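Input (structure):
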């Protein structure tokens, strides 16, 4: 377990990274241990956060110079261009900043997220209803190279079911917040699919609140873009809430793909499974995965496990993998974490080559088998086929 720098008390206007001595005082004089993930400073106002320098705990593994305009500059908060098809049971609309449905799932913990929150004009509301299976694909495209801000709220009604894909294509310099609210007894899958152009930069903060006996499958797929940083934060707020957080990424030469995952067990008998898998090839390919799980005193009977696996395909790559687990109650069903980064399994390659398969084809089969575990859990045959084709293109360097 890795200790993290703590924050100032909620409501303070100071940065979460000013303290340098392991403990930071609350306004009432008490202290918060450095590992308490839930105590990070939060605000929807960008001015409440200090400028980003890259030394802060939330930014120290990120190439901050590549997106200084998104963390501190002015952002265009107008509506994004969307491509989507009508789906029965899925309603899309634009709502004003003042709408009471905004801010229910969570609020920013860092400056880029707060800058996007301070800048958007209207939020895209995606409302899912009905207990039949349905798939809605929403593609953001044509964003251009100017810095943009966006806000999306995905809300699923109690006892409803659905799958929502938020996809990104083409040029972009985007900082966005995505709120996900899962009603009682509902089952929702959200796929965040990054297939941006080669020079695109995308910073995304996802906040999810899961209700009583509800289930969320949250999947982050990052393939395209120069710098992609998607950080999902899930609050298991009511009894029986369940999250399966999955991630798939393929970093090529000079590409930075990052995910910082937080799961907060805050109610009895909640469950979480976190599995992120990635591959890296080419000089300067970089991936970052940070996984924080907090099991609060209010969450007896918790069942939690998180893991990250990285497959290194060439020299000159770097994979950072940091699992953190904090447990505040002894009354749990189970909790654990794992992390591994390695090269090809020579025995697997030998087995395949001994059966007449070329080395290049054997390597492709091994990588595909390693990554398709995540693809096969999406639950949409069309999307799974699309992603398998994209992975083949990555392996062939297309």
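Output (sequence):
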């Amino acid at each position: 377990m890795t200790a993290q720098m703590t924050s100032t008390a909620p409501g303070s206007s100071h940065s979460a990274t000013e303290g340098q001595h392991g403990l930071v005082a609350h306004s009432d004089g008490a202290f918060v241990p450095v590992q308490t993930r839930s105590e990070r400073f939060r605000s929807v106002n960008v001015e409440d956060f200090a400028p980003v320098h890259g030394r802060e705990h939330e930014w120290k593994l990120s190439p901050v110079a590549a997106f200084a305009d998104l963390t501190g500059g002015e952002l265009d908060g107008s509506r994004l261009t969307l491509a989507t098809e009508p789906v029965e049971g899925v309603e899309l609309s634009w709502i004003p900043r003042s709408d009471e449905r905004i801010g229910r799932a969570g609020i920013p913990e860092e400056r880029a997220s707060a800058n996007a929150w301070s800048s958007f004009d209207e939020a895209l509301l995606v409302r899912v209803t009905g207990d039949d299976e349905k798939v809605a694909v929403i593609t953001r495209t044509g964003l251009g190279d100017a810095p943009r801000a966006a806000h999306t709220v995905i809300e699923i009604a109690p006892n409803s079911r659905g799958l929502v894909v938020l996809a990104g294509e083409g040029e972009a310099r985007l900082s966005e917040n995505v709120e996900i609210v899962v009603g009682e007894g509902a089952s929702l899958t959200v796929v965040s699919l990054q297939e941006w152009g080669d020079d695109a930069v995308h910073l995304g903060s996802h906040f999810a609140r899961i209700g009583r006996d509800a289930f969320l499958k949250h999947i982050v797929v990052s393939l395209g873009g120069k710098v992609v940083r998607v950080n999902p934060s899930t609050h298991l707020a009511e009894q029986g809430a369940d999250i399966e957080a999955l991630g798939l990424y393929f970093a090529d030469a000079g590409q930075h793909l990052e995910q910082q995952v937080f799961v907060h067990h805050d109610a009895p008998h909640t469950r979480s499974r976190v599995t992120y898998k990635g591959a890296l090839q080419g000089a300067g390919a970089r991936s970052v995965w940070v996984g924080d799980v907090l099991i609060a005193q209010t969450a007896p009977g918790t069942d939690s496990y998180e893991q990250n696996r990285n497959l290194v395909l060439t020299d000159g790559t770097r994979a950072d993998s940091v699992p953190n687990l904090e447990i505040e109650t002894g009354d749990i069903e189970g909790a654990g974490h794992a992390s591994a980064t390695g090269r090809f399994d020579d025995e697997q390659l030998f087995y395949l080559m001994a059966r007449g398969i070329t080395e290049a084809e054997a390597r492709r089969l091994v990588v595909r088998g390693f990554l398709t575990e995540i693809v096969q859990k999406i639950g949409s045959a069309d999307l799974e086929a699309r992603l398998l084709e994209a992975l083949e293109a990555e392996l062939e360097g297309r």
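Notes: The chain has five helices and 20 strands. The first helix runs from residue 68 to 72.
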